[in-house]
Amino acid sequence: MMTIHERLDAIYQKITDPAFRESKGMSNEVGYHIFDYDPEHEMIVRDHIAYLKDRINKEDADFYIREFDLYEIIIDILEQKSYLEKNFEMEKKKGSSFVLNATQKTLRLTLNNDLVIRYMGDRVQPNDIVFITGVGKAFPFIRSHTILNNIHKAVGRLPVVMFFPGQYDGQSLMLFNELKDDNYYRAFPLVGYR
Question: If you average pLDDT over residues 150-162, what whole number do you get?
Fold first, then answer.
């Protein structure tokens, strides 16, 4: 069984392979990949993502890693709309459940004008590899399967890697190794455990 460090080290070779960037799966599916990991390794994974971005984006490669931290996107959208401070006040008065519902409506998740998807779409470039991070931090506001089911609207056929603090068995996502998300079948595990 590979350690978290061995699995993280395998990412570089995987994403620098030209076949990976062509986004071709077994049947030419869109190239969505999930790097799942034990949530206790969150800080190790974050550090490695920063290392990969720094290394690849400085190499003068023919591609660029574009990272989208879902939590940071939520904060940025709420700040742009001047809703962030209002959310804090609303939570004090009406509770967390109310703010969760209000924030999800503000983000327009799963709608045609989903602000999170638009945020990413406005920032990607044709030669990007998209890294999605902050999945655990953004829960329960954004669910990972919601992003995976809708991200094609933003990135087209660009390769996507979601860093997932939990388990992905090729069919279902289990956030924090405890919370079962909806089934998701279109993503490939980026690096296995063996």
Answer: 92
